[in-house]
Amino acid sequence: MADWEVGVFTSIDAGLGVQLQVAQDLEIKTIQLHAPKRTSRTPDNADRFLGQLKDLGIELTCVFGGFDGESYADIPTVTDTVGLVPSKTRAERLREMREIADFARLLECDVVALHLGFVPHDRTESLYQEVVDVTRQLCGHAEQNDQAVHLETGQETADGLLQFIDDTGCENLFINFDPANMILYGTGQPIEALTKLGPKVRSVHCKDATWSDKPGETWGSEVPLGEGQVDIEAYLRTLKEIGYLGPLTIEREIPQEPERQKAEIAHASTLLRRLASEIL
Ligand code: MG
Q1: What are the CA-CA distances from residue 92 to residues 83, 84, 95, 98, 159 (Å)?
Q2: Among 118, 143, 207, 229, which is most buried by a count of CB atoms within 10 Å?
Q3: What fold is seen in the domain 6-279?
Q4: In this predicted structure, what is the pLDDT of residue 14?
């Protein structure tokens, strides 16, 4: 794969992300995949999908887990519903995330990723240790599959995330850096965060956003790439500084407007290719 190959976040069924057809139409050669529903995660479907990717010359770089019952409606709802943090659903979701990792293995994919949820900021809280424990269990399973686990950024500050990864002691635990999420959740200036996270960043999203007037309390707004407050040129220059040359995976979550979504991904792809040719 070429350095900074443009990618796009996709899904097969009702998950987040665009259909594979969009990648094909826009001549995008790498994808991340939102894990399909349990009923679709069969060996036959894996074979079929893998065949399709090979025919299209598209490389799958990461499978993202997601769970029933998750809601991104507002920040408190994320705390209550997302990832492996909520205790009520934790055991079941760990089981499902292991299945997703096994499905990713069938797709010959070495990376699984997820929104872990809001890790408590107080390390002495018992919930903090519980989240460390469940992350170790997931990483242990991924290790048996020769896979890494990437945590999506957003809910934690850069310092909090580094501390958390360190506390797990897992050597296959890394970061999927999403600069827009730092703004949307109000957890820090993305460029500064990226510099801190440095070598732990092993995959990225290219997404843009504007700050909320009450950061950390209410959402910022996701906007088309280049129109927000990430500063995409500075983002790419910083990725180069930290030595990241992997895929630049565009994420644009407006599934209710597929035409606009596709047009904005096309625009993002053009922007990234132009900037890459100037910066690399
Ligand atoms: Mg993202």
Answers
A1: 11, 9, 5, 10, 29
A2: 207
A3: TIM Barrel (3.20.20)
A4: 62
